[in-house]
Design brief:
metal ion binding; Methyltransferase, Methionine Synthase (B12-binding Domains), Chain A, domain 1; cobalamin binding; globular; metal-binding; alpha/beta; Rossmann fold; 5 strands; 5-stranded parallel β-sheet; 10 helices
Length: 222
């Protein structure tokens, strides 16, 4: 059984989605994350063990390699897709409560901004790290965050912006959210942002990449 967990972790780390996936070439013709997750469940490995012992460590390795410049966005996206192919088998166990989530993370691209690649990648990575992710999409107004927080009290908010013209929308959005939910923690990210800007607008943290985001989230619940 440990062999299945080990192979599943490798599939996620190196982006082997399923049997038909040609990438990476060294794993061509071998089962991918899709098949191995199903096999793990059929062999009696608990969904929680699959998440904790295979998926989360693999995505942590991916995130660290990205931060260190050893891999780039295309490889990270493949790993995230492999992780998603595994997660689809685990979703029923999340819904039943058999797998415990670390918390709820609400993510969106700020009002006026339609860019979503960074947001999508971060959402997939955070989900793979054991969080429930609610993706609000792009061009998200503060009201949409507030409505979601009404339904999920205590959720943590993430905001993304890729344009200098839309990053200025973050401060009034954070203020509006805190007016209704004063204790809400907010992390921001995106190409034009930095830690100083995040502090100036009242955000709790700035993430330079998805792994940075995960590390901060995990530090809150540690």
């Amino acid at each position: 059984m440990n062999d299945i967990i080990s192979k599943l972790g490798e599939c996620v780390e190196f982006g082997k989605i399923n049997l038909a996936s040609p990438y990476p070439p060294t794993m061509k013709g071998l089962p991918g994350a899709d098949e191995l997750t199903r096999e793990a469940l059929e062999n009696g490995i608990s969904p929680q063990a699959i998440l904790n012992d295979a998926l989360i460590p693999a995505m942590n390795r991916v995130g660290n390699k990205f931060t260190e410049g050893k891999i780039f966005v295309p490889q990270m996206l493949l790993s995230a897709k492999a992780m998603n192919s595994a997660m689809k088998h685990l979703k029923p166990y999340f819904q039943s409560g058999e797998i415990k989530r670390k918390g709820v993370f609400v993510i969106g691209t700020v009002m006026g901004d339609l860019h979503d690649i960074g947001k999508n990648l971060t959402g997939m990575m955070v989900e793979g790290a054991g969080w429930e992710v609610i993706d609000l999409g792009t061009d998200v107004p503060a009201e949409k965050y507030i409505d979601t927080l009404n339904q999920h009290p205590g959720a943590i908010c993430g905001m993304s912006a890729l344009l200098t013209t839309t990053m200025s929308n973050m401060q009034p959005m954070i203020a509006s959210i805190r007016e209704k939910h004063p204790d809400t923690k907010v992390i921001v990210g995106g190409a034009p942002l930095n830690a100083t800007f995040a502090q100036e607008i009242g955000a709790d943290a700035y993430a330079r990449d998805p792994q940075d985001n995960i590390n901060w989230l995990d530090s809150i619940v540690a």
